[in-house]
Amino acid sequence: VWSTIPVQLDEIRQIEVVKGPNSALFGFNAVSGVVNIITFNPKFDNRNVATVRLGDHGQKSASLVATHKFGSAVSARFSVGAEERDEWARSGVLPTASTLHDPQRLATALDVVAQLAPKTELRVEGSWSNIQEDSVAGGFSYATMKMITGSGKATLTSDTPWGQIQAQAYQNQLTAKYGLAGGIRWENTINVVSLQDLFKIGAAHTIRLGGEYRHNTLNTAPIGGADVSYDVWSASAMWNWAITDKLTTTTAVRLDKLQLDRSGSFPARIPLANNNLWNRDVSEPSVNFTAAWRPTDFDTFRASYARGVQAPSLIELGGVQLASGPVFLLGNPKLEPTIVVNYEAAYDRQLKGAKLGVRLFIQDWSNLK
């Protein structure tokens, strides 16, 4: 749900769109592409903007972005924004007027950068958002959807004789409420810790080694009483080789080991229900390789191979627990990851004020859900 992203337009420096599977570089599930939203860094950018917008259909929005430096060592950026729009007019008996609620959004974020030492930096970030909008569940039922998100992250970066070492920990929280079946409420928490080292060997080789641990848990709904979760251990490596000043290669590999688990009760009258069905491990590698050749300052040839991994979501693995007469929906703990393999050849020509490019690619999806 894009409106839950706790970022205001005025604090965005740039947006990068990376096409195709890139899970070796960005982590599993980055199989269709990556939208990387990069905000201004309060250490380098003095961003202070207040904005008010009015539009048709009752659109009203306001936002504030403020940056402040606390001496020479600490910098902070604060942002807050709110938005409201009119709901669609009813065209039939249903939905009733009492179930319609205007779409609304409120979001805030704080980004603090502290220079602890000449070569050591600590960055602490936090955010919160609260959105409300309508939802059509399964194509047949209208409901109001409300989502509340919260996040906190700390990143410690230090330039050492062994390279640039970065340690990071963050938590994302989501409360999702749907006005269906007497009320559906999901609580989702993701905890991640990671460590990486970026270093050079000579002038031609840049290497990044990393490890990550992730825990994700979700309660079952609308029939509660259980939690579905997984733990993921990951190891990754990236190697950029500048063979010449015109020819470079980038190779990235990552191995994810997912351990699935379920705890709690089942609805009555399910003869095959057993938490042991969720006790399984899945291990899959991701690969990205690109070779780029620039024979002139205007021409670039590129060849790439990618193998991406998309793990099943906790909703699919058992987060939905529903009874409809004699039929029970419990999810499928035996779902396999979707594997995406992509081969691509590309050519780009930089023209005056424009760029011309052509792409030839083939992409294969297996175990598509």
In short:
The protein is mainly β. It has helices at 23-26, 314-319; strands at 12-19, 33-39, 49-54, 60-70, 74-84, 104-117, 120-137, 141-160, 163-178, 184-201, 205-219, 221-222, 226-242, 247-264, 280-293, 299-310, 320-324, 327-329, 338-351, 354-366.
Q: How would you describe this protein?
A:
The protein is mainly β. The protein contains 2 helices and 20 strands. The strands form 3 sheets. Strands 3-4-5-6-7-8-9-10-11-13-14-15-16-19-20 form a 15-stranded antiparallel sheet. The chain has a 3-stranded mixed sheet with strand order 12-17-18. A hairpin with a 2-residue loop joins strand 19 and strand 20. The mean pLDDT is 92.
Number of helices: 2
Order of helices and strands: EHEEEEEEEEEEEEEEEHEEEE
Largest β-sheet summary: 15 strands, antiparallel
Spatial gap, N to C terminus:
20 Å
* Order of neighbouring strands in the sheet with most strands: 3-4-5-6-7-8-9-10-11-13-14-15-16-19-20
The outline comes out as globular
Residue windows where pLDDT falls under 50 for at least 5 positions: none
Rg calc: 24 Å
- Bin the helical content: under 10%
Please provide the count of β strands: 20
Mean pLDDT: 92
Sheet/helix structural class:
mainly beta
Strand content: over 45%
